[in-house]
Design goal:
alpha+beta; Thrombin, subunit H; 2 helices
Length: about 110
Amino acid sequence: MPTLKQQIQEDVKDGAAWWNEDEFADWHDVNGKRILCVLCGDSRMKEAGARKMEERPEGVHINRGVLFLRAADAVGVPRRGQKIRINGRLYAVDEARLIGGAVMRIDLEANEP
């Protein structure tokens, strides 16, 4: 029986549900490169946004999201505060980490007036 890490790597290779355009993934422009990935909001991130409320000026709201992509499509792990342009919109990296050595999760935030 494969380990979880091995199974994730196998799923990434064979285009399992996550990387299937008919399931979760869509093509997005990420820093000028067309990548099949999953871009979504994360309801758990509302708590982090509330904690950061005192850090931002009045009237500025933070739009938060999560980008999942194949680690092979990324050049290194982005650092906190690094800017990423997705579909023409600029986001800042809040956190980024590898999952199972094959999938990268990038927590994003963007200011909205």
